[in-house]
Amino acid sequence: MSAESAQVSELPAGTTTVVRAEKAQKLISKLNLKRVEGITRVVMRRPKNILLVVNDPIVYKSSNNAYIVLGQVTVEDMNAQARAFAAAQNAAKDGDETEESKAEETAEAPAAEEKADEPEEAVDETGVDPKDIDLVMAQANVSRANAVKALKENDSDVVNAIMSLTM
């Protein structure tokens, strides 16, 4: 009995289901499994780059090289980590721009503002619903003239007009 109580007291701190872990360790001790020391992390790969990670696990080995792992499982999505890493690299690239390109961008910005301040040309809105025009303007963030042009090119199909302006 003292060996069983010693094993139960070796549970990692912060174990949420201590009662289940105690029962599992008692059952494992009856199966004559050998405890494996020195393992600090267990990672199991699942399909679609999903990893199941157990930090500070309690690991047992059977005579036929099967392992039993006890501990808190966390899920890591490698795809999400790769996307975050790529975004960080792109941000670093953007931060390394030269002063010349920054100067060119600032020179182009006033020109764009001047275009926005110009009065819009009168656009022939016949055959196009004004509500559709307003919707395309709001969703695609474009001028009224561009919205009317896109609606006419797409036969008054609002979805395709928005897609043509934003893609």
TrEMBL record:
Renumbered residue ranges of the record's region Disordered: 89-131
Gene3D superfamilies registered for this protein in UniProt: DNA helicase RuvA subunit, C-terminal domain, Nascent polypeptide-associated complex domain
GO-annotated molecular function: phosphatidic acid binding; phosphatidylinositol-3,5-bisphosphate binding; phosphatidylinositol-3-phosphate binding; phosphatidylinositol-4-phosphate binding; unfolded protein binding
Location of the protein in the cell: Cytoplasm
GO cellular component: cytoplasm; nascent polypeptide-associated complex
Chief location category: cytoplasm
A biological process term (GO) from this entry: protein targeting to membrane
InterPro entries listed in its UniProt record: EGD2/NACA0like, NAC-like_UBA, NAC_A/B_dom_sf, Nas_poly-pep-assoc_cplx_dom
Biased composition (Acidic residues): 115-127
Record-annotated NAC-A/B domain positions: 18-82
Family the UniProt entry places it in: Belongs to the NAC-alpha family.
Name by which UniProt lists this protein: Nascent polypeptide-associated complex subunit alpha
